[in-house]
Amino acid sequence: MNIWVDADACPNAIKDILFRAADRMQVPTTLVANQKIRVPPSPYIRNVQVSSGFDEADSYISNQVALGDLVITADIPLAAEVVAKGALALSPRGELYDNSNIRERLTMRDFMDELRGSGVDTGGPSQLKPSDRQAFANQLDHWLIRLRHPHGR
Fold first, then answer.
1. How do residues 32-56 score in pLDDT, each as one tens digit?
2. Cα angle, residue 56 at apex, residues 104 and 41 outer, rounded to 5°
3. pTM
4. What is the rounded distance in angstroms from the CA atom of residue 20 to the CA atom of residue 141?
5. Computed over its alpha carbons, how large is the radius of gyration of the chain?
6. CB contact set of 70 (below 8 Å; sequence gap of 6+)
7. Count of alpha carbons within 13 Å of 85, Cβ hemisphere only?
């Protein structure tokens, strides 16, 4: 199992949590971005720089992800793609996307996109709060525990 990170917009605080978890649990973790991302020296952490075109990082992740992998992204369409391939997606705010909720999140995202397209100011995302970081760390820990103990043992 691998962790894939849509790293262009991933907050540094979330990357730091991922770096510690990758080393602690020895889980291959790949940060994918349009720019060079600094990663600590580790046999479990690597970065992949893709070309700067629109959705290049998303396409790379979608093509590489496998059943059971975890993808860290705030991009709902990417989350929907990886969930369809049997992976899970986790937002930097700690929202886990799976088959039970991804359709609803995609519908809401499309609706908000339509509002913005018609000139409605929907505001941007709020600042990442300590409670968001904690929710992310908790969901990541749950995934890592399931990874290590797939049958609840």
1. 999 999 999 999 999 999 998 878 9
2. 100
3. 0.87
4. 11
5. 15
6. 1, 2, 3, 4, 87, 88, 89, 90, 140, 143
7. 19
Residues 33/17, Cβ–Cβ less than 8 Å: no
30 touches 10 (CB < 8 A): no
* Residue in this structure with the two tokens 């600042």, named with its chain if needed: 127
Which residues contact residue 59 at a Cβ distance below 8 angstroms, ignoring those fewer than 6 apart?
Answer: 50
The token pair that represents 71 in the structure block: 């993808």
**Most confident of the following: 93-97, 112-116, 121-125:** 93-97
63-111 confidence digits (pLDDT tens): 999 999 999 999 999 999 999 999 999 999 999 999 888 888 887 877 7
